[in-house]
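Internal tracking record. Fields below are filled automatically when a chain is submitted to the structure queue. Please do not edit lines marked as system-generated. If the sequence contains nonstandard residues, flag them in the REMARKS field before resubmitting.
Queue: standard
Priority: normal
Entity type: single polypeptide chain
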Amino acid sequence: THLDHCPECVRDLKKISDLNLNDTNLSRLSQLFTAKTEKNDISCSIAKPDIMAFVMMAFHESNDKILKHLCTCGKCSDIVYKYRDSIITELKIDNKSKPCFFSSKISYNNIFDFVIPYGTDLNQYKQSESMQSQASHVRRCPFCLEKIQEFHRIISEIHERPNSNT
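SYSTEM-GENERATED OUTPUT FOLLOWS
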């Protein structure tokens, strides 16, 4: 019924559908969208020192509460986005190369954990050679980082949009 009267939510649902996320990632995305700030949650000032580790996809250097904050706080999410943008700019200046093979083939499911580490098993992430290898490539590839930024924008636009009054 809500969707019958809310064109913004219909657009949001279409954007999410277009991402072609698997069930696990849709479930984690749902957790992100419904996450509430709790009384004992951490503040931006406590999370701020971990922003660069987040930007560089070194999530194992952080903890669950900080990752939750950095994923759900619009202010901190904007800072993450700006840092990644500056890295992309620097990489493109230094690296006047063509897009890598992976950047055209990468799906939103492949980069989900890099954009939304909230809900990730940090021990598994730390021990996964595959994830570490992917993170190593992505943090140095301006084209893959642009894909991450695109995903970040889509999710942030939906997450930060004020609730509909209908």
